[in-house]
Design goal:
Elements: H1 2-19, H2 23-48, H3 53-64
Helix pairs in contact: 2-3
Length: 79
């Protein structure tokens, strides 16, 4: 239940934030999200290749530099 409420609140905040952006800012956000997705896909492939979490997270940090906040490129796992 708490997770559902959190997700609904997050979706609402994202929608409100997007409504305040200009077309140019929205396009920049789209490009940034796509770049983050590519970086995360690279991290997934790295882990699949057996390189180890430390190596893959270092590669992710390099790929995401300047894209998102935090060392996990805007995504943090529960573990």
């Amino acid at each position: 239940m708490k997770k559902t409420l959190f997700l609904l609140a997050a979706a609402w905040l994202c929608t409100a934030a997007l409504a305040q952006h200009s077309d140019k800012e929205t396009k920049e956000d789209i490009a940034r999200h796509r770049a983050m997705a590519v970086a995360h896909e690279g991290a997934a492939k790295c882990l699949e290749a057996g390189k180890g979490e430390k190596v893959c997270m270092q590669e992710l940090a390099v790929a995401c530099k300047g894209l998102a906040l935090g060392k996990y490129c805007g995504m943090r796992h529960a573990h």
